[in-house]
Write a structure and sequence with these properties.
This protein is mostly beta strands. It is about 5% helix and about 45% strand. The chain is built from 1 helix and 10 strands, in the order E-E-E-H-E-E-E-E-E-E-E. It is globular, with a radius of gyration of 13 Å.
């Protein structure tokens, strides 16, 4: 079964940047639209961004538009989330999944902590 493993998180100061990666292990990744999601402490998991299976079209949620960018490399089975000008409110565990998300494909997230 497909596994999506996110990485690249860490501790960063406000205004800093991180580039998250999420690797898929099977054939599902190449054939479906992918999305990034995050879950802050005590909150629901929220949708952030999506990219079409071929990488031509993408959508960024308004709350992070202009700071976050999504991209993918199907040859590497990897989707990326470039995050710039990070704010404390961006502190969360970040996940990737299909778009729309499938309960079968929630994998390991990566913790992002924005703090001075």
């Amino acid at each position: 079964q497909e596994q999506f493993v996110a990485s690249g998180g860490g501790l960063v100061q406000p205004g800093g940047s991180l580039n998250l990666s999420c690797a898929g292990s099977g054939d599902i990744f190449k054939r479906f639209d992918m999305g990034w999601y995050r879950q802050a402490p005590g909150s629901e998991r929220d949708f952030l961004a999506a990219i079409s299976w071929h990488g031509v079209t993408s959508f960024i949620r308004e709350a992070v538009r202009g700071r976050f960018t999504i991209s993918r490399d199907n040859a590497k089975n990897t989707v990326y989330l470039q995050m710039n000008n990070l704010e404390s409110e961006d502190t969360a565990v970040y996940y990737c999944n299909l778009n729309p998300a499938s309960p079968n494909y929630w994998g390991q997230g990566t913790q992002v902590t924005v703090s001075s």
